[in-house]
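Two proteins follow. First one:
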Amino acid sequence: MVAYKNILYCTDYSEDADLAFIHAVQFAQRYESKLHVLHVLDTIHRYSPYETSEPVEEKDKDWIASPELIEKIRTKVVDRYQPRLEGVSEVDWTVIPGVPFVEILRYARENDIDLIVMGSAGESEQDQTSFLSTVANVSRRAPCHVMAIRNPEKRYTL
């Protein structure tokens, strides 16, 4: 029997990610697992993990992933998801800068994750012409099961 003790939920605030959250919480409740909530601040430059494309406020122009910015984003993530965590006893909240699929894989390995739950199409992947999505890269390289949740109401066309 499969037993998930550490479940990683990855969010980019997309619609698919919000649907994936529901499934991650249900699995965490069912298996009495620790739920890890991870948000990766997507970096502008692949080799410069400190410049992010995610401002906290619209007026922000200098998007350096400082400890202050990371803490503001972490608070935003906690405020968004904590009210919907009924029945989950242990939660770890993490925000880190970097290339999303790389940081997700690193986090999964370092924290003995048994299941990664994420939306099938993130905010940056709504354009169907993108080469490889974060979920594709994670599912091909993950050391554990990966569940990609898509919105069944969306119709994808090529």
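Second one, unrelated to the first:
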Amino acid sequence: MGKRDLLPASRRAFGTTTAFDLTFRDDAGNTIPHMHSSHKVKTVDYFATRPVFSLEEAARALAPPRGRAGAVERLKHHLQAGRLKLVERGLYAVVPSGIAVERFQPDPFLVAKAARPDGIFSHHSALELLGVAHSNWTQCTLYTARRRKPLAMTGVTIRFLDYPDPFRKESHRQLGVRKIERRGMLLEATGPERTLVEGFRRPALAGGLEELVRSAAAFPTLDLDLLEAILRRYNTANLWAATGWFLERFRKSFGAPENLLSRIEHNRPRAPQYLDRGQRGGTLAARWKLILPEVIVRPGEADES
């Protein structure tokens, strides 16, 4: 069997073409081609590979004769036909066949990616993409160089975050980042090591400390060298301490050696601190000079030696 036979029939029927690069169907179901230059993507192919997209992306990919205005016209036709849903001005989602537009809810991760293609998903969103989130969450968060107002969707709000100071330089942003496939799209998210540290830094964005610890405990493994590199990049005493406490608590799971724990302990706070600034009460983890909520230090939940 040749490579061509491996493609679904629908994709074989609507491959790229050198003659007709922009098509739409009229109300009778007829395909109406628009002539243009060679090797551009047909509308139906674009919809098949871009579940959510921006007007700018569509104009570049489809390259209609009148540029952006032509793309607006074509997309308006598909909106009226119920094949697209307008998420917000300039942002479109492809409606799956057989689903009414008003009942369709686009994937918030793909919406966020279309709104900010440079985005790196973080905190609880990273936990979800990494497959360890303990609970569902009502926020989707990602770092971006171009911050914008939150985007409210049904049941979830997308928040676009500035990069933390240690990662503002473009050359630093990929430290501890992974590529993850979702519905045929390649997304970037902070990996387990950076998600753990940044979750301790801003627990509310990770669903709270209990959600963070329960979720992170399910990581299959941690790259301890990378984890230490991320801690050094932040170089914040309570992040050193929180991470040390976590590694000691789940020592059997992640195999943190004593020499690493000792290095981390050397960077702990000089006096006891609350991990969560809004916290009152709790239990002192004496080795780490950290006061932790009772809910994450219950007996019987750890696996330390």
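SUMMARY FIELD: The mean pLDDT is 86. The radius of gyration is 24 Å.
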